[in-house]
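so the lab meeting is tmrw and i was supposed to have these ready like two days ago... anyway. pasting both below. for each one the top line is the aa sequence and the line under it is the structure tokens. i havent really looked at them closely yet so no promises
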Amino acid sequence: MPPTPRRPRRALQLAVNAVLRSDVAVATRRPVVGLTFDDGPDPLVTPRLLDLLGSRGARATFFVVGLRVRAHPGLVARAVAEGHEIAVHGHTHRRLPDLGAWGQLRDLATARRSTRAVAGARPRRYRPPYGEQRPSTVLLAKALRLRGAMWTASAHDWKDELDEAAQLARVWPDLTAGGVLLLHDAAAGEPARDVDPDRVLRLVTGVLDGLAERQLSAVSLAELAQAGPAVTEPWFDRWLHG
């Protein structure tokens, strides 16, 4: 029986997925989780967030937007000085698959350059805005020596209709040792909007309290990577289903 027309495409997808994978977690028994924040820095939220993290001995990876880095370099420098990791979240926060190959490369390269200039070291990780990428995105990021870093749990804190209790309830089923939590210290979406600093602080306080109750510590992804081998997945929902 001759193969159906879909089989060659499916074989290509499987081959691509086997090679072009993104980090989502770490396989470890150590009581650590990766704490990450997207879209910042924000001049009203990020300073208070850094105060909170410092008071609780927690560290995080901040996936920053290049344009915001240029506008608030002092906040990035402070985060680095206090032991946090800085990573790339694009330069403009536009969806990378919409930009074409050259546009994706330019956006990631510009963001990496801006971040490196302020952080003082080359960023090693990137997270595409909205988590959307295609195989071309991963290939171009690899050319820039950027490693994809996704997540296992999210508070869905961009949904204004959810209060902090509902957001916290979404975290715990998917967050165990070695996992990665997605949060935000700004909202650089389309359109960008202001974020309530008090709401962010209440949510993060609840997260840190919940981690303490579960005897888990919040660390940056750089620290999490030291705890065990990376767990990787193909992260191409848009490409596979779009």
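ok protien two:
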Amino acid sequence: MRWCRIASGAAVVALASCGDDSDDVGGPPDEAVEVEIAAELDRGPGNLTITPDGRRVTSLHQAYAPVRVLAELSGSGSGTTLLNYPDLGEGEIPVGLTAILGIRSDTAGVLYMLDNGSSGLAPSKLLLWDSNTDQLLGNISLESVTEPNSFVNDLAFDYARNQVYISDPAGGDNAAIVVVDLATGQARRVLRADPSVIADPAVTFSVEGITPTRRLPDGTLVQPRLGVDGIAIDYDREWVYYGALHGTTLYRIPAASLADPAAAAQLPTLVESYATKPPSDGMAIDSEDNIYLGDLPHNAFGVITPDRQYRELGRSAEYKWVDDFEFDAEGRLHFVTTQLHRSPDLNAGQRAGVPPFRIFRFDPLAEGRQGY
């Protein structure tokens, strides 16, 4: 048995079993990874972003029906508090925000925020918000490239081509990647229903004994099959990596082809099966092409190294639905735990998430760059 250290600041607060490798995609880590508690929240987070000047902004997950959709973190550990973001005055919510999940800061401090419109209740859009001046810079409609059950989820920047790549798991069998040209504001839906983006019907899993289940308005219970979720691009802007939440394969595609409207018909032939992965949500990549992602069934997280092998880095009962990964200015990698399997949306209508909702951080295997 090996152990992972979980620390708060310099103090180790728990020891968690890294488990054995009897049912893992990879094995347990050769060395424990020291993981710190970066923040404890009283509400369920969505995705986290960190601006170049160190401000930490999180979306508040719509699965928990928050009053506001964004918050700024103040303090750390158990002393973390959530402030209104943007703070434009008492009760004021800017630019008609509906349901933000995916959020990323670029290297200039512009926040790219995906408003999924609460799964079709309002039009989906990509908002560009200047965190330095608290001003809206852009509002790009995604209505023409999304479907009634679309759920624009996560995004990756292609600075070389001025594009944004967005994952849309949609209803599972109509999942796709949305490509936005920032110069023109034009959006395209590509790889729709491609085997690389749809959910694998053979994949099912439980987290803490809970199998993700939705209760429909008529009371029917269904187990959703979620398509493409995590998405990331390497620092050379050569490859875009992605995979379905209900899937055990990480895929990649040339970024140049994904950005080229003339190559749309050829994209299915350019997809490459890159590596085996666990069922996972968000992901991030460092400067040496190590790809970090969660392992939902095992309350764990790990890395796919350039040799295309998955290796677990840590496992703990506290890693309850590992989701988004984000680098800070010091190169530490943060990951959010959302307890999403305990939210009404994936727990048959029952709310069982228990604060604190924790954000952790650790030192990655190689340099990580903020805003990439």
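from a quick look at the 2nd one: The chain is about 5% helix and 40% strand. Residues 1-23 have pLDDT under 50 and may be disordered. will dig more after coffe
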